[in-house]
Amino acid sequence: MIEFGHGTHTGLRRLRNEDTYYADAGLGLFLVVDGMGGHKHGEVASAMARDGVVAQVTAGQSLVDAIQRVNEALLARSGGLKESRPMGTTIAAIRVSGRSYEAAWVGDSRIYRFADASLERLSHDHSIVEALVEAGELTEMQARNHPQRSVLTQALGITAPDQLHIGLARGELAPGARLLLCTDGLTDEVTDEKIAGIVARTDLAAQECVDHLVLAALGGTGRDNVTAILVRAAG
User: Fold this and answer.
1) Is 113 left (phi over 0), alpha (psi -120 to 50) or beta?
2) Rounded CA gap, 113 and 102, in Å?
3) Over the stretch 81-111, which tens digit does the pLDDT of each residue have?
């Protein structure tokens, strides 16, 4: 048995919400997507990615195969547009089956695992800044304020199929463990330490934890859309 909470907000500076998400405990599928492209292209890309992955997984495809097919569909769609503006999206998704989970991602939307009083990032950002951190050229603190922190190296609808690198992680969801999926509207505004403090709370329902996470993001600059899903395994 799992409990989950979910939420999204346009933020304080944006006129439209290019984030979207899906949460279905019956299917065991949870995902967040963060569209990009402006002029409603981001909204279209994120909705196409959400609906495409749900349809593919429902039809029996793996998360990786579903994401690959969605990337191809988005590339085909954007290739038919008259405008040169790209139409892309990030994705962070998990599939839970019993006590096992599979996580997959492209871009800088993130997946965290909370267990044994510790928050662990399962995903790694497909971004220029993350590559610099991994190379030891930037610290995590410097990365948070870097002017290129939002420049991605991988995105659905933009990266060619033969160049797409889908992040993948698998594990066991122990009793009481949590999985958090979120867009960068949360992680750019709220530190991992504060996220951990909210996710750790056992006096709150999963939905209340998500509400607190969104409010924490809005308590910063609120410059971006923010979306989060928290999945909590029964104790």
Assistant:
1) beta
2) 12
3) 656 567 899 999 999 999 999 999 999 999 9
- Length of the chain in terms of residues written: 235
User: Which residues are 118's β-sheet partners?
Assistant: 115
Helices vs. strands in the chain: H and E counts, helices first:
7, 10
* Closest CA relative to residue 207, chosen from 230, 227, 226: 230
| This prediction's pTM | 0.94
Q: What letter does residue 130 receive in the DSSP assignment?
A: H
The 8 Å CB, 24+ separation contacts for 171-174 are 171/100, 171/101, 171/103, 171/113, 171/122, 172/99, 172/100, 172/101, 173/2, 173/96, 173/99, 173/100, 173/101, 173/233, 174/99, 174/115, 174/233
Residue 203 CB coordination number (10 Å): 6
At residue 98, the pLDDT reads 92
Contact predicate 29/93, CB 8 Å: yes
Backbone φ and ψ of 121, nearest 5° = -85, 115
The one-letter amino acid code at 17 reads N
In our burial notation (b when 16+ CB lie closer than 10 A, e otherwise), range 169-196 reads eebebeeebbbbbbbbbbbbbbeeeebb
